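From the shared-data thread, chain only:
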Amino acid sequence: MTVGIYQADGRLKTYNVASVATGAGTDIVTGTQNGKERVLEILVSNVTASAKTFDAYLYRAKTATAHSIITGYSLAANSHWRCDFPMQLEAGDKIKIVAGTAASLDCLVTVSESAGRGAQ
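Structure, as C-alpha cells:
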C-alpha cells in the first residue's frame, strides 16, 4: 500500500512492506527519476517477541554497487530502528532491507518527490 501526501513543492510518499524477505531481501523503493526523489526516512519494525537482525542497503544502479546503511543490526523484540538521513535516488537506485529471519520485520520508507513527476 502506498500513501501520497501532496505539498506545493512536490509530494511525500510512504512505501510499506510487511514481512521483509531473507536471503536476497526486499526492495522497498526504487528510484524512477534522476535526482527527483529523496529518501527522508527508513523505519524498520520488529513485530515479534524476540530480537531479530537485519541489514539495510542503498543500491546505486549507475555503479551496480550496494552500499551498507547498517549491517547485522539486532533489533529488540517489538521495537523499531529509524534512519532519517536524506539520500538522493537516481533512476534504478534502490533501498533494500534483508531480514535475518522471515516474517519478522516490517518496513516503511518515506520519499519526497519533486513536483511535476506525474502520477504513478
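The two ends are 13 Å apart (CA to CA).
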